[in-house]
Amino acid sequence: MRPIYLDYNATTPIDPAVFRAMHPYLGGVDQVDLGIFGNPSSSHAYGRVAHEAIDAARSKLAGLIGASPSEIVFTGGGSEASNHAIKGFVPPKFMGAVRNQIHVITSAVEHPATLQPCEYLKRLGCSVTVVPVDATGRVDPEMVRRAVTKATILITIMHSNNEVGTLQPLREIAAIGREHGVLTHADAAQSVGKVEVNVNDLGVDLLTIAGHKLYAPKGVGALFIRNGVKLEPLIHGAGHECGRRAGTENVPYIVALGMAAQIARQSLPAARDKLKSLRDRLENRLRALLGDGLVLNGHRELRLPNTLNVSFPGCIGAELLAKAPEVAASTGSACHEGQVKLSPVLAAMGVPPEIGKGAVRLSVGRFTTEEEVDRAADILARAAKLTGFAATISPK
Q1: Is CATH 3.90.1150.10 the right assignment for the domain spanning 269-386?
Q2: How far apart are CA 154 and CA 184, in angstroms?
Q3: Distance CA 130, CA 208 (A)
Q4: Per-residue pLDDT tens over the stretch 219-255
Q5: What is the three-state SS of 318-359?
Q6: Which of 85, 92, 193, 382 is the most buried (most CB within 10 A)?
Q7: DSSP strands (E only) in the chain
Q8: DSSP H stretches of helix in 249-390
Q9: What pLDDT sits at residue 98?
Q10: In terms of pTM, does the model score above 0.85?
């Protein structure tokens, strides 16, 4: 029997309807007669068909997030999108600038696809402020306000955290940016398709989308760039994507992302409610089996509907999962050469090491069943008891 998959925040399977939509565009020998394998930049009939498929996908994705199709740039994934958003301001503004005349604000719980580009900017001489979070993983907008300087050009704060699921007060943060003439970028890779994401309601200027978090393939994503915002291309070459991202478009994967967006738009908010029900069922069953010693990491209410990050006090997350091979999930700490290193996200939240080292991230998805949730809880509870679960330990 295959392990129960509770790692949807790591990646999602391709939805069958998404696969059916993309398959003809893969351009295999059996598709040649269909005439839809062409280069979308070609002016002949084959190219026009491919170009129209991309336009349709762009409209579908724009519709999901409340954007205009012209504001969608397809990328090779979420990391590329975030890199483009963060690095794209620097080349034209940085030339001839003295050190620390460019300032970026981010948070302590961002994905590496945000934090590493910010570190790159620091190596160029830019200034970066990393604002802290509270015990639930939330940024205080006033901390952002106090961090803004005359040199600030960008605020980059994720919409939801990939580890604990906490949702950020992005609307308030973007409003602060507008007050000071500063643009706001949001990594919404984990949010899109799970909760309603509308770029105009949030007020953001740039937004990252990752296809493989949305039941599309790995290797495709998108960056929302609000009309009027100018970015230097991350990848230079020919004039693809209206000159914003060079490289022949990955037509089948873009079609897949468009179909995934269409399904997500049609299924919300019912999908959100289903995910929340499964997540809560999982937590409630674990608590019924283990008691209140189980520790929730993240915000109780303001979090993704599918994400449950819990610590099993007295346990090490990796050891617990090793005792539960029937469940596929992720840990909140890394084990290396006998040492347990606390997740940077949990550390930023102030989670004590004795609690954080027992963290496990459980994320349900579209194809999770109630029976799987119940069985996974039973397996995890049994494994916790075998690896030293201590119900009397509570967070400091």
Answers
A1: yes
A2: 6
A3: 19
A4: 999 999 999 999 999 899 888 888 899 898 999 999 9
A5: HHHHHCCCCEECEECEEEECCEEEECHHHHHCCCCHHHHCCE
A6: 85
A7: 4-5, 72-75, 103-107, 127-131, 152-156, 183-187, 206-210, 221-225, 295-296, 307-311, 327-328, 330-331, 333-336, 339-342, 359-363
A8: 251-267, 270-290, 317-322, 344-348, 353-356, 370-386
A9: 46
A10: yes
Is 335 an annotated catalytic residue? yes
Helix (H, G, I), strand (E, B) or coil at 205: coil
Q: Please give the single-letter amino acid code of residue 268.
A: L
Contacts of 7 (CB under 8 A, 6+ apart): 328, 329, 330, 361, 363
Report residue 234 as tokens: 């991350």
Class of domain 16-267: alpha beta
The number of angstroms, rounded, from the C-alpha of 339 to the middle of its chain's C-alpha atoms is: 28
Phi, psi for 287 (deg, rounded to 5): -70, -35
Residue stretches of the chain with pLDDT short of 70 = 28-35, 91-100, 332-339, 392-396
**Among 385, 233, 353, residue whose Cα is nearest residue 343:** 353
Q: At what angle do helices 251-267 and 45-65 cross, to 10 degrees?
A: 30
What gap in Å lies between CA 257 and CA 18, rounded to an integer?
A: 8
Query: The tokens of 206 are what?
Result: 């740039």
Give the pLDDT score at 395: 44
Give the pairing of strands 183-187 and 152-156.
parallel
Catalytic residue among 118, 242, 315, 335: 335
What is the sign, positive or negative, of the torsion defined by CA atoms of 290, 292, 298, 304? positive
CA atoms within 13 A on the CB side of 357: 16
Domain boundaries, the chain: 16-267, 269-386
Q: What is the pLDDT of residues 330-356, one digit of tens each?
A: 996 655 445 678 999 999 999 999 999
Q: Yes or no: say if 325 and 3 are a contact pair by the CB < 8 Å rule.
A: yes
* H or E element at residue 120: helix 112-124
C-alpha to C-alpha distance for 294 and 380, rounded to whole angstroms: 12
Structure tokens that stand for 63 in this block: 């519709």
Amino acid, single-letter form, for residue 49: V
